[in-house]
Amino acid sequence: MSKHRIPRALLISLLFFSSCNTAHPQEPCAPSGKPIRLSANVVTVGTVVTDERGKFVEGLTRGNFHIFDNGVEQPLIFFGLDRPTHVLLLIEAGPAVYLLQGGHLRAAYALLAGLSPADQAAVAKYAEGAEGVSDFSVDKQLAANALDHVNFNVGFGALNLSDSLGTVLEWLEKTPDKKTIVLLSSGVDTSSPAVTEGLLRRLRVSDVRLLAVSLSGELRSRPQEKRKKNAPGAAPSFAEEQFAAADEELRQLAAATGGRAYFPADEKDFAAAYAEIAQIVRHEYTLGFSPRNLDEQVHAVDVRVTDDQLDARAVSTVPAAKARILRVDHRQAYVARSDGTPRSAERLE
């Protein structure tokens, strides 16, 4: 894909001064595969454990994990590792990203190459709304080909990030097994604040992990320009404020699911981010428990990991005095529905 050289100011204007239109997005291609129903109501919690150096902690067993439902520890009825994952690459297809396309998409091949043979990948894009590009398949080349043929909007239009993610969550409700959204986005969102707030609530109780990769690094001011602008007493520019807001939204979206946000500045950084994302997908422990109180309420979920060798406990926030600090990323909550619908589409093998 060719990369067009264009003044940075124009790129920024394409992001921040776009206006909405009434075009209807194409109906997405639905994920394949019928869910397998379970008689038991099982809540699954995908968990990623890394040490203080960011290295994935491998070799943990069922006994190392402790899961809590509203603060009360629950017995694990399922424990697994390296279960197949459905990975959906959701790409912003607005005008600014069209002009920047190239490096971030080429680097995305590192993600596809790092997935396991059993993982399935799909590609979708969004601007005014979400639109499917390729369906889930274990053939990663199909997703790679789809990346090469993503059509970007070259005119002004909306970037309804939150609204589009809500649509994607609806697609994935029909998809069994582990689910990960890899969001490639500037973070600019023309959805209403109410839609964004509702999306964050949905993400918090969903069984989908969201990993966000910012595409706006090339739109930022050069380091020397940034130093001058950040001189004492200098007020932040409009673009800087908008970029900060976009970055914060990406962080919040990822954090709501126990995911991570990345802010690469160049093609090398993109490649490193995608390589780490592939490792996250492949190093996710899957925990399952059966909730005792089906009260239709939102229940907080917490996962703790005991390290028998170093006698250290890792939680989401760990005191600095611990001998070894482990980072534990997992979903934050679930809805305890009496009909079992939140987890009835899970296949545990």
Describe the SSE topology.
Layout: H1 8-16, E1 43-50, E2 65-69, E3 72-74, E4 78-81, E5 85-92, H2 95-100, H3 103-114, E6 120-126, E7 130-137, H4 140-148, H5 161-172, E8 178-185, H6 193-205, E9 208-214, H7 223-229, H8 238-255, E10 261-262, H9 267-282, E11 285-289, E12 298-307, E13 312-314, E14 327-330, E15 333-335
Helix pairs in contact: 3-4, 3-9, 5-6
What does this structure look like?
- The structure is a single chain.
- The chain is of the alpha/beta class and 349 residues long.
- It has 2 domains: 43-82 and 284-335, no CATH class; 84-282, von Willebrand factor, type A domain (Rossmann fold), CATH 3.40.50.410.
- It has helices spanning 8-16, 95-100, 103-114, 140-148, 161-172, 193-205, 223-229, 238-255, 267-282, and strands at 43-50, 65-69, 72-74, 78-81, 85-92, 120-126, 130-137, 178-185, 208-214, 261-262, 285-289, 298-307, 312-314, 327-330, 333-335.
- Strands 7-6-5-8-9-10 form a 6-stranded mixed beta sheet, with helices on both faces.
- A hairpin with a 3-residue loop joins strand 6 and strand 7.
- The radius of gyration is 21 Å and the shape is globular.
